[in-house]
Amino acid sequence: MKKTFAAFVAVATIAGSLASTPASAQRGVAAGVAAGLLGGAIIGGAIASSRPAYGGPVYVEEAPYPACRMVRERFWDGYEWRFRRVEVCN
Question: Rounded distance, CA 20 to CA 46, Å?
Answer without folding.
Answer: 23
